[in-house]
Amino acid sequence: MFFTPRYLKEGRELLHGARKMYAYKRDLLSPHDLETAEAAIAELEEALRKRDRKAVEEASEQVNTFFGKRFPTPAHADWAENTEVFLVAIIIALGIRSFYLQPFTIPTGSMQPTLNGIRVFEMTAPVPNLAVRGLEWAWYGRSYFDIVPKVDDVVEGMEEVTRFWFFHYTRVVGARESFLIPAPASGLVGAFRLQPGARLQAGHPLRGYADTGDHVFVNKMAYNFRSPSRGEVFVFSTNGIMTDENRRNPGGPSQYYIKRLAGLPGDELRIDPPRLFVNGSEAKEYGFRRVMSGSPYAVGGYRGYANGPLFLTAPDAPYKVPDNRYMALGDNSYNSSDSRYWGTVPQDNLMGCALFVYWPFSPHWGLIK
Predict the structure, then answer these.
(1) Which pLDDT score, from 0 to 100, does residue 22 have?
(2) Is residue 87 within a helix (H) or strand (E), and if so which, with residue range?
(3) Which of 25-29, 294-298, 343-347 has the lowest average pLDDT?
(4) DSSP structural state of residue 262
(5) Does the 6-70 domain belong in CATH 1.20.1270?
(6) 61 Cβ contact list (under 8 Å, min separation 6)
(7) Which of 134-143, 276-285, 297-306 has the lowest mean pLDDT?
(8) Helix or strand (DSSP H, E) at 353
């Protein structure tokens, strides 16, 4: 094939295209044109079979002339073809998103150490140069900031805003000036104690970076072919569940949560900190064992009676999961709003199981356990 003469390669490509055009457009041709097209294609086939260069070139010219006159290339054909390819790609992507794989971003730290939410860190070293910042954003989803107040001030308010549907900031409003920081308000509170009433000093920088939450693919087809499995990470809608968001905004849009599926319908659960028991035995699945061991944290395990939960409140207070409902627990048990506080998840709320961390390229990248 590598040593095939160019005239043969081009002739064969033309023959292939002519056959396709003839098959697609033959209903538009008159009987006379059908005969002419068939004769031109047959002549090109014979010339290629004999490897006669002159005959191939003459037959190719006849084929080009015939089909060029009957079916001229429309103006801006390249643009039309590229647009069609682009639209088809969008349709395929939307179809995959709707029925197979749904991208999902982890917003909070309730699933650490399995999955990271958005994290904010203070730093004292200078912010890296633009090239390093670009590379780290592409690889880690890391956004640096270096805000230097011009005057002494007091924070009066903080508002999270979104630019261009993708970039998330917190607008810090002071009595005398305001500024945007590319980080969530909760992260700024934790890293800088930046909240209403906090004092800002002129020339004293707010310097640090925010790492984006893990971006995962959720397998939306899985539960159409199998039942949910205890121990897997799953995503569900909070529609009809009395989460904090739903209490603050009754009738508002539901959120999507990601947790570990701790209890199936009919399971009996209890927590004897730091251990989780399912149907009388200590949970053995990998995710539960890691939480109970506290790894990689010094303090870990399941906690049943912190900050006023409603369920699994004491070692001698088991809870049986009702039919068609599921118990959801966060791996970061000490800092997770989950089924201990707002109850079980209805089966109709299930979206699918978390499958893969596709970005950023951190140690979490890959299949989710």
Answers:
(1) 83
(2) helix 77-99
(3) 294-298
(4) E
(5) yes
(6) none
(7) 297-306
(8) strand 350-359
* Tokens of residue 20, six digits: 């396709």
What residues form DSSP beta bridges with 258? Answer: 235
Decide: 325 and 347 in contact? Cβ < 8 Å.
Answer: yes
d(C-alpha 320, C-alpha 174), whole Å: 50
Residue type, 96: I
- How do the domains of the chain map onto residue ranges? 6-70, 119-211, 215-367
CB atoms within 10 A of CB 320: 12
* Identity of residue 279: N
Q: Are 158 and 173 in contact (CB under 8 A)?
A: yes
Cβ burial of 76 (10 Å; 0-12, 13-18, 19+) is: exposed
Bridge partners of residue 326, in order along the sequence? 345
The CATH number of domain 215-367, selected from 3.40.190.10, 2.60.40.1180, 2.60.40.10, 2.10.109.10: 2.10.109.10
- Beta carbons within 8 Å of 117's beta carbon, 6+ residues apart: 106, 107, 108, 109, 110, 111, 213, 214
Those residues with Cβ within 8 angstroms of residue 150's Cβ, 6 or more apart along the chain or in another chain: 177, 202
Q: What is the mean pLDDT of the chain?
A: 87
